[in-house]
Write a structure and sequence with these properties.
The protein is mostly helical and about 120 residues long. It contains five helices and three strands, in the order ββαβαααα. About 45% of the residues lie in helices and about 10% in strands.
């Protein structure tokens, strides 16, 4: 597994975000005892064909510059979209506040999340 990145080691950047029983958590500070008996999903397990709406949108919008942070960004976005299927800009800003992008692709990230919401809506209809 190479998708989950180690960034800061203190849960400040979000590059290491994974899902623990459906919740976005920072793996760099999550103790193994907390994960015991729970389902851990990394970017590799988000969808079988890399076709989760967030993954599709990231590709369609061409979000990454260096790409290092984007597995964590996508994992956080996936939880946001599950909890708020049609997020506002403020919802996106709030949900993604713990994910840092050194390259500053925030406008593309927001645009991709809006597109992912549309893709998700279409796939359910």
């Amino acid at each position: 597994l190479t998708g989950t990145k180690f960034g800061c080691g203190v849960a400040q950047c979000g590059a290491c975000t994974v899902h623990l029983d459906g919740e976005a958590v920072r793996s760099c500070v999550t103790k193994m005892s907390r994960a015991e008996g729970k389902t851990v999903v990394t970017i590799e397990g988000l969808s079988a064909q890399n076709d989760h709406p967030a993954q599709q949108a990231w590709q369609d919008i061409d979000v990454p510059q260096c790409g290092y942070c984007h597995s964590g960004q996508i994992m956080s976005a996936a939880v946001l979209l599950r909890e708020i299927p049609n997020p506002t800009d403020q919802d996106i800003d709030d949900a993604m506040a713990g994910n840092i992008c050194r390259c500053g692709t925030y406008p593309r990230i927001r645009k991709a999340i809006h597109l992912a919401a549309e893709l998700q809506k279409k796939s359910k209809s």
